[in-house]
Write a structure and sequence with these properties.
DNA polymerase, domain 1; mainly alpha; two-stranded antiparallel ribbon; about 40% helix
Length: about 160
Protein backbone atom coordinates (compact mmCIF):
# COMPACT_ATOMS: atom_id res chain seq x y z
CA UNK A 1 0.00 0.00 0.00
CA UNK A 2 1.16 3.50 -0.77
CA UNK A 3 1.21 6.07 2.05
CA UNK A 4 -2.09 7.44 0.71
CA UNK A 5 -4.90 5.72 -1.25
CA UNK A 6 -8.26 7.01 -2.46
CA UNK A 7 -11.03 4.84 -3.87
CA UNK A 8 -14.79 4.94 -4.14
CA UNK A 9 -17.74 5.82 -6.33
CA UNK A 10 -20.63 8.31 -6.33
CA UNK A 11 -22.01 6.92 -3.05
CA UNK A 12 -18.88 6.21 -1.05
CA UNK A 13 -15.30 7.39 -0.63
CA UNK A 14 -12.53 5.47 1.10
CA UNK A 15 -9.30 7.13 2.11
CA UNK A 16 -6.41 5.11 3.53
CA UNK A 17 -3.34 6.62 5.09
CA UNK A 18 -0.13 5.30 6.56
CA UNK A 19 1.01 7.52 9.42
CA UNK A 20 4.54 7.01 10.70
CA UNK A 21 6.92 8.92 12.91
CA UNK A 22 9.98 8.23 15.03
CA UNK A 23 8.19 9.72 18.04
CA UNK A 24 5.07 8.04 19.45
CA UNK A 25 3.52 11.34 20.63
CA UNK A 26 4.00 12.97 17.23
CA UNK A 27 2.53 9.88 15.58
CA UNK A 28 -0.56 10.23 17.77
CA UNK A 29 -0.71 13.88 16.69
CA UNK A 30 -0.66 12.89 13.01
CA UNK A 31 -3.54 10.46 13.56
CA UNK A 32 -5.49 13.10 15.52
CA UNK A 33 -5.00 15.61 12.69
CA UNK A 34 -6.31 13.13 10.11
CA UNK A 35 -9.31 12.35 12.33
CA UNK A 36 -10.11 16.06 12.96
CA UNK A 37 -9.82 16.87 9.26
CA UNK A 38 -12.15 14.02 8.31
CA UNK A 39 -14.65 15.03 11.01
CA UNK A 40 -14.67 18.64 9.74
CA UNK A 41 -15.30 17.57 6.16
CA UNK A 42 -17.99 15.03 7.04
CA UNK A 43 -19.55 17.45 9.54
CA UNK A 44 -20.40 19.84 6.72
CA UNK A 45 -22.72 17.27 5.08
CA UNK A 46 -25.61 16.02 7.26
CA UNK A 47 -26.08 12.82 5.23
CA UNK A 48 -22.43 11.85 5.44
CA UNK A 49 -21.19 9.22 7.81
CA UNK A 50 -17.62 8.73 9.02
CA UNK A 51 -15.82 5.60 10.13
CA UNK A 52 -12.22 5.86 11.31
CA UNK A 53 -10.18 2.75 11.94
CA UNK A 54 -6.64 2.97 13.25
CA UNK A 55 -4.50 -0.16 13.00
CA UNK A 56 -1.04 0.13 14.53
CA UNK A 57 1.50 -1.66 12.36
CA UNK A 58 5.11 -1.13 13.29
CA UNK A 59 5.76 0.56 16.64
CA UNK A 60 8.98 2.41 17.21
CA UNK A 61 11.26 -0.17 18.79
CA UNK A 62 13.32 2.37 20.77
CA UNK A 63 11.09 2.14 23.85
CA UNK A 64 11.33 -1.66 23.86
CA UNK A 65 15.09 -1.75 23.33
CA UNK A 66 15.69 0.88 26.02
CA UNK A 67 14.38 -1.62 28.57
CA UNK A 68 17.04 -4.16 27.49
CA UNK A 69 20.36 -2.33 26.93
CA UNK A 70 22.25 -5.64 26.89
CA UNK A 71 20.64 -6.43 23.51
CA UNK A 72 22.16 -3.39 21.80
CA UNK A 73 25.44 -3.92 23.64
CA UNK A 74 25.64 -7.48 22.28
CA UNK A 75 24.88 -6.32 18.74
CA UNK A 76 27.56 -3.63 18.94
CA UNK A 77 30.08 -6.11 20.36
CA UNK A 78 29.39 -8.48 17.44
CA UNK A 79 29.77 -5.68 14.89
CA UNK A 80 33.11 -4.61 16.39
CA UNK A 81 34.27 -8.26 16.57
CA UNK A 82 33.76 -8.44 12.81
CA UNK A 83 36.08 -5.42 12.46
CA UNK A 84 33.33 -2.98 11.54
CA UNK A 85 32.48 0.45 12.85
CA UNK A 86 29.24 0.72 14.82
CA UNK A 87 26.92 3.31 13.32
CA UNK A 88 23.49 3.85 14.80
CA UNK A 89 20.92 5.33 12.46
CA UNK A 90 17.17 5.69 12.70
CA UNK A 91 14.97 3.94 10.22
CA UNK A 92 11.26 4.28 9.84
CA UNK A 93 9.34 1.52 8.28
CA UNK A 94 7.98 -1.90 8.73
CA UNK A 95 10.54 -4.28 10.14
CA UNK A 96 10.41 -7.66 11.75
CA UNK A 97 12.49 -6.19 14.59
CA UNK A 98 9.71 -3.75 15.37
CA UNK A 99 7.06 -6.45 15.52
CA UNK A 100 9.23 -8.87 17.51
CA UNK A 101 10.21 -6.14 19.98
CA UNK A 102 6.55 -5.26 20.56
CA UNK A 103 5.85 -8.95 21.23
CA UNK A 104 8.51 -9.13 23.94
CA UNK A 105 11.60 -10.23 22.01
CA UNK A 106 13.80 -7.10 21.81
CA UNK A 107 15.26 -7.21 18.31
CA UNK A 108 17.31 -4.31 16.91
CA UNK A 109 17.72 -4.01 13.17
CA UNK A 110 21.18 -4.95 11.95
CA UNK A 111 22.54 -3.98 8.58
CA UNK A 112 21.81 -6.15 5.55
CA UNK A 113 23.90 -4.65 2.78
CA UNK A 114 20.89 -2.93 1.24
CA UNK A 115 20.87 0.65 0.00
CA UNK A 116 18.22 3.11 -1.24
CA UNK A 117 15.38 0.95 0.08
CA UNK A 118 12.01 1.12 -1.68
CA UNK A 119 13.34 3.34 -4.46
CA UNK A 120 13.84 2.61 -8.13
CA UNK A 121 17.57 2.44 -7.38
CA UNK A 122 17.38 -0.09 -4.51
CA UNK A 123 20.42 -2.37 -4.50
CA UNK A 124 22.44 -4.65 -2.24
CA UNK A 125 26.19 -5.08 -1.86
CA UNK A 126 27.41 -8.67 -1.87
CA UNK A 127 30.36 -7.74 0.37
CA UNK A 128 28.10 -6.00 2.88
CA UNK A 129 25.64 -8.91 2.84
CA UNK A 130 28.53 -11.26 3.65
CA UNK A 131 29.66 -8.93 6.47
CA UNK A 132 26.08 -8.90 7.82
CA UNK A 133 25.95 -12.71 7.81
CA UNK A 134 29.33 -12.90 9.56
CA UNK A 135 28.09 -10.37 12.13
CA UNK A 136 25.08 -12.56 12.90
CA UNK A 137 27.45 -15.48 13.55
CA UNK A 138 29.50 -13.22 15.85
CA UNK A 139 26.29 -12.19 17.60
CA UNK A 140 25.47 -15.84 18.28
CA UNK A 141 28.97 -16.22 19.75
CA UNK A 142 28.46 -13.16 21.98
CA UNK A 143 25.20 -14.53 23.36
CA UNK A 144 26.62 -18.05 23.78
CA UNK A 145 29.52 -16.65 25.83
CA UNK A 146 27.21 -14.85 28.29
CA UNK A 147 26.40 -16.58 31.54
CA UNK A 148 23.00 -18.21 31.60
CA UNK A 149 20.35 -16.23 33.45
CA UNK A 150 19.75 -17.41 36.95
CA UNK A 151 16.38 -19.09 37.27
CA UNK A 152 14.17 -18.76 40.29
CA UNK A 153 14.53 -21.59 42.80
CA UNK A 154 11.98 -24.29 42.15
CA UNK A 155 9.63 -25.37 44.85
CA UNK A 156 10.19 -28.88 46.17
CA UNK A 157 7.30 -31.15 46.87
Amino acid sequence: MHPFEVSGDASRAVLRFIARDFDDDRLAGHVALLRRTAEEIVGSEPRARLEVEVRPQYPNMRRFLAQHPQVLAAAEQAIRAEGLEVRRTSIRGGTDGSVLSRRGLPTPNLFTGGHEFHSVREWASLQEMAAAAATVVRLAEVWAARPAPRSAPSATR
